[in-house]
């Protein structure tokens, strides 16, 4: 099961790979799928923000992670 936190950058795993930022993690009740509220970067995505199942999202990056060092051409 995917674990996301507020400010994590995610994309949908569906056909349209919309990118967004987690703004709220919904309370998970027993037997329910974990859900998060995502503010989408694409202005035409409605509703915005929307409540999404965490299993339908893929993590792009955590905002607290240091930037990935670029590889130098050798």
Rg, alpha carbons: 14 Å
Q: What oligomeric state is this? A: single chain
Outline: globular
Helix content range of the residues, please?
A: under 10%
Q: In percent, how much strand structure appears in the residues?
A: 35-45%
- What is the total tally of β strands? 5
The stretches of 5 or more residues where confidence is low (pLDDT under 50) are none
Q: What class do helices, strands and sheet pairing give?
A: mainly beta
Mean pLDDT: 82
Helical stretch tally? 0
Strand order of the largest sheet: 4-3-2-1-5
- What's the main sheet like? 5 strands, antiparallel
Short description, anyone?
The protein has strands at residues 9-12, 19-25, 35-40, 50-53, 57-61.
What does this structure look like?
With 74 residues, the protein is mainly β. 0% of the residues lie in helices and 35% in strands. It has no helices and five strands. The protein has strands at residues 9-12, 19-25, 35-40, 50-53, 57-61. A five-stranded antiparallel β-sheet has the order 4-3-2-1-5, with no helix packed on it. It starts with 8 loop residues before the first strand and ends in a 13-residue tail after the last strand. The mean pLDDT is 82.
Outline the fold blueprint.
Layout: E1 9-12, E2 19-25, E3 35-40, E4 50-53, E5 57-61
Antiparallel strand pairs: 1-2, 1-5, 2-3, 3-4
Descriptive key words:
about 35% strand, 5 strands, about 70 residues, five-stranded antiparallel β-sheet, mainly beta
């Amino acid at each position: 099961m995917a674990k996301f936190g507020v400010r994590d950058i995610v994309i949908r795993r569906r056909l349209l790979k919309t990118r967004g930022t987690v703004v709220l993690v919904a309370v998970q009740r027993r037997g329910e799928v974990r859900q998060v509220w995502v503010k989408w970067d694409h202005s035409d995505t409605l509703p915005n923000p929307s409540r999404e199942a965490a299993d339908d999202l893929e993590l792009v990056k955590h905002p607290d992670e240091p930037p990935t060092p670029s590889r130098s051409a050798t």
